Amino acid sequence: MTTVAASTLRQRDADHIVHPYADQKAVAASGPLIIARGEGVYVYDTEGRRYLEGMAGLWSTSLGFSEPRLAEAAARQFAKLPYSQIFGDRSHEPGILLAERLTKIAPQGLNHVLFASSGSESIDAAAKLVWYYHNQIGKPAKKKLIARISGYHGVTVAGGSLTGQPHVHADFDLPIAGILHTDCPSYYQFGKGDESVAQFVERIAGNLEALILREGPETVGAFFAEPVMGAGGVIVPPAGYFARIQEILRKYDILFVVDEVITGFARTGEMFGSFTYDLKPDMMVVAKALSSSYLPISAVLLTDRIFDAVAQGAAKNGVFGHGLTYAAHPVCAAVALETLAIYRERDIVAHVKEMTPHLQEGLAALQNHPLIGEARGVGLIGAVELTRSKSTREGFDPKLGLGAFIQSRALAHGVILRVLRNAVAVCPPLVVTPAEIEELLNGLRRALDDGLKHAREKGWM
Ligand SMILES: Cc1ncc(COP(=O)(O)O)c(C=O)c1O
Questions:
Q1: What's the DSSP call for residue 237?
Q2: Whose CA is nearest to atom 13 of ligand 1?
Q3: Which helix (H) or strand (E) holds 284?
Q4: Which helix (H) or strand (E) holds 181?
Q5: Rounded Cα–Cα distance for residues 14 and 34 (Å)
Q6: Same domain, 309 and 433
Q7: 431 shares its domain with 442
Q8: Which of these, 193, 108, 248, 132, lies nearest to 392 by C-alpha position?
Q9: Percentage of the chain with pLDDT > 90?
Q10: What is the distance, to the nearest Å, from the Cα of residue 295 to the centroid of all Cα atoms in its chain?
Q11: Averaged pLDDT score across all residues of the chain
Q12: What CATH number does the domain containing 257 carry?
């Protein structure tokens, strides 16, 4: 319980907090859900109501909400050296050990680590490195960045531009010049008529190649993609998709930046989504589960050839002109190191593999629900897609508010889910048990039943 009454907290919130991704007036009118404490996969609000955190916060709190070893690791580091920096020739032990550990578990060849504090910052750093690299290798025209419609890469100027969602661009004057978007690989949403999955993959890969040729391959520097799109509605890539995409990238000498901000650290049932989908990143961005999100820390991992360009540019310019005050922050790094140690000791990959059928079979069973057009997922991330008609696959107009209704009904049933347009997403902490997965699925099913009743009463289907 908090010491301040919830009602006054709500008013103060309305008076002062700018809520990310919110309709400010609506939040002020309804009042925020104020979370006061956490335990395991559960969080508790200021009234003491318990919720199963089916989204692990923002796809992030992998070890749940009460891992004492992370608090102890932070306390130890706070006592020893609460802050130090790594500019120039300075360094510190937690940063060094974390960089080394990350390169050991990462896909082969990612031998160097550039730290930051958030996914967006690291995506921006990766974009800058694409530009820096091509300047060093004498290809200064090769600067355009391609990302995907519905993809999510954060909100900073480059990251927000790469994000393929209109509300991230609207009125922010984004995307900036030189950023292009290609197809979203959702076969359910964009497969045409009787097109097979293989034909769909061929068509959208063909569109990517046509885009590259139209722009001129000598002007395209990199392709950014999440192994599984998260905020775009949990879009799992169709079979063969990434193999074709990587073939095209290789053909035109285009760097592949893999955004593992959600998929990193076992979420898909392997340590990285890159292993699940056989991706060969030139750069890989990680954040969130790197520290179980207990403290902010992120990184871009890069290959020798990108690092060589960094070294070359630094020699030319006198310095590598990029750096953040909190890069490899020692307390954040110590907590990340402890997080990685816990993943190894508890074999988090094996645990996720064991839990996967419980979640994925439960979601698949919802495919028969009258409101659901598709159930999908991999590892411990998934979604069900709302539809008015299984035959036409038509979704609901977001203005009707069915998604928000289902989300609020899930809360009433003690479960936190997230509705992204017509997708109801689940992404529980990786430490979830079979019984907790069952509880999550029950809450989801009950919320969908409430949603179906509501949609029928309103005449929406
Ligand atoms: C795939 C992906 N990339 C980047 C980001 C941005 O990370 P942050 O919110 O830490 O800036 C997110 C955030 O959800 C994400 O899901």
A1: P
A2: 154
A3: strand 283-286
A4: strand 179-182
A5: 12
A6: no
A7: yes
A8: 193
A9: 98
A10: 16
A11: 97
A12: 3.40.640.10
Half-sphere exposure of 423 (CA within 13 A, CB side): 23
Report the C-alpha gap between 75 and 289 in whole angstroms. Answer: 19
CA 252 – ligand 1 centroid, Å: 28
Q: Are residues 284 and 368 in the same domain?
A: no
Residues having CB within 6 Å of any atom of ligand 1: 58, 118-120, 123, 152-154, 226, 230-231, 259, 261-262, 287
Domain count, the chain: 2
CA of 461 to the centre of ligand 1 (A): 35
pTM over 0.90: yes
**How many angstroms does the Cα of residue 119 sit away from the middle of ligand 1?**
5
Give the whole-angstrom CA distance, residue 461 versus residue 458: 8
Residues 135 and 248 both lie in one domain: yes
Domain annotation covers residue 154: yes
Q: Is residue 7 in a domain?
A: no
Place of tokens 């039943």: 449
Assess whether the previous peptide bond of 140 is cis (omega < 30° from 0).
no
Domain boundary among 285, 311, 345: 345
pLDDT(2) > 70:
no
Band of the pLDDT at 7, cuts 50, 70, 90? confident
